[in-house]
Write a structure and sequence with these properties.
Number of helices: 3
Helix content: under 10%
Structural class: mainly beta
Distance between the termini: 37 Å
Shape: globular
Strand content: 35-45%
Number of strands: 31
Bound molecules: CU-O-CU linkage, copper (II) ion
Radius of gyration: 21 Å
């Protein structure tokens, strides 16, 4: 529904948004691993919508892709989503209809699936990050779907919010251990977070536990739709403030928030002495020796000089505004009836997908209904047993991901820079 949100805070005007239950972000849904969930969505927008449960391995009919997995929910109608999340972890939900506007105007929320026995921490905190392009009067700027932008970085905004507001301080206590869940719900902004004076340890990526490790260069790289869970031991000085900086874009670093220590004595003198490896989720292990291999080439986008790359002769008739393609074919939009699968995969078989980014741009490539294991990047084995639903590809890089095709249905695979998705960087894999 439509609503207003104090994104900037202070004396600034509130922003007109679209919201779940009137809140930006939408309500944090906390459910339990292996227990049935039932969520009814009532559409009070002026247009069709659906809800997609990003990263959750659920039945195809609950995946929320209009036309492909369900009819869109029209104004005044409702739809009940029912599924049993097999995996514990940090997930999120967002519309899959007119996504540029609906997500860009605020429709997104976190879905936390709790482990039956959570790891020992003092606090479990969510940072739902979003990116907005606001005018000076605090309203959302128009111009969604600009073709030039769609062929470049996508709609990167000018205001980053944390849990729905431009943040200043995150209050913390010396000595405490925090499980921090980061969600990047931006349309296009990639973030790379550095925690001044702290050493975050990554324990899960896209909800799926990995081998605990410190990130490369101490920075957490979060493309759109990606999540990272970290363990943070607050070893700073009582009363001090430490910056969290996002320095992804050259020359455009800014501080996102400060970790603000209260003046109290540390709650403990040494970091908490407890294991923080998360229990593995019940993911089927792909058999790499028998896996069938397929290549997906990501093509298109602006090169220097303004030409489109790798787009010779591709595109489906009647589809304009395509700036991107997968293996020479552009599927545009958010999902619709009659999308022809690129490939049919055999139920129960193991697959390795080679994602080859032939473009000059970054792409967080997301697959619905599955998590895949990152096996290899540019020819080197990927460390830390990373299972993801969204894999970030730098320009010209290649990543191999492996999975068992164990979930039948037609599943979207697309870039989560929404401008890229809707301008052609999307395909469908059928599992039957
Ligand atoms: Cu979160 Cu099809 O995406
Ligand atoms: Cu998804
Ligand atoms: Cu992309």
């Amino acid at each position: 529904m439509a609503g207003r949100a104090p994104l900037i805070g202070g004396d600034y005007p509130q922003t007109d948004v679209w919201a779940y239950d009137g809140n930006v972000p939408g309500p944090m849904l906390r459910v339990r691993q292996g227990e049935p969930v039932r969520i009814t969505v009532e559409n009070r927008l002026d247009e069709d919508t659906t809800v997609h449960w990003h990263g959750v391995r659920l039945p195809n009919a609950m995946d929320g892709v209009p036309g492909l997995t369900q009819p869109p929910i029209t104004l005044g109608e409702s739809f009940t989503y029912e599924f049993t999340p097999p995996d514990a972890g940090t997930f999120w939900y967002h519309p899959h209809a007119n996504s540029l506007l609906q997500l860009g105007r605020g429709l997104a929320g976190a879905l936390i699936v709790e482990e039956p026995e959570p790891i020992a921490v003092d606090r479990d905190i969510l940072w739902m990050l979003a990116d907005w392009r606001l005018r000076s009067d605090g309203q959302i700027a128009s111009g969604f779907g600009n073709g030039m932008e769609a062929a470049m970085s996508g709609r990167v905004g000018n205001t980053v919010t944390l849990n729905g507001a431009v943040p200043t301080d995150e209050p913390v206590r010396a000595g405490e251990r925090i499980r921090l869940r980061l969600v990047n719900s931006a349309l296009a902004r990639i973030m790379r977070l550095r925690f001044e004076g702290h050493r975050p340890v990554i324990v899960a990526i896209d909800g799926q536990p990995c081998d605990p490790h410190e990130p490369e260069g101490g920075r957490l790289l979060l493309g759109p739709a990606m999540r990272i869970d970290v363990i943070l031991d607050m070893q700073g000085v009582p009363g001090r403030r430490y910056q969290v900086v996002d320095d992804f874009y050259d020359g455009l670093a800014y501080w996102l928030v400060h970790l603000a220590y209260d003046k109290g004595a540390p709650v403990r003198t040494h970091p908490m002495d407890a294991a923080f490896r998360l229990p593995r989720n019940p993911l089927p292990e792909p058999d790499l020796s028998t896996a069938e291999r397929h290549e997906l080439r990501l093509q298109g986008g602006m090169m220097g000089g303004g030409a489109m790359a790798g787009m010779g002769g591709m595109g489906m008739p009647g589809m304009r505004h395509a700036a991107w393609a997968v293996n020479g074919t552009s599927m545009t939009g958010d999902g619709h009836a009659g999308m022809k699968p690129l490939r049919t995969l055999a139920l129960g078989r193991s697959y390795v997908l080679t994602l080859r980014n032939e473009t000059a741009w970054w792409h967080p490539m997301h697959f619905h209904g599955h998590s895949f294991r990152v096996v290899d990047r540019n020819g080197s084995p990927a460390p830390h047993r990373q299972w993801v639903d969204t894999v970030l590809l730098p320009p010209k890089e290649t990543v191999d991901v492996a999975f068992v095709a164990d979930n039948p249905g037609d599943w979207m695979l697309h870039c989560h820079v929404i401008d890229h998705q809707t301008a052609g960087l999307m395909t469908v894999l059928r599992i039957a």
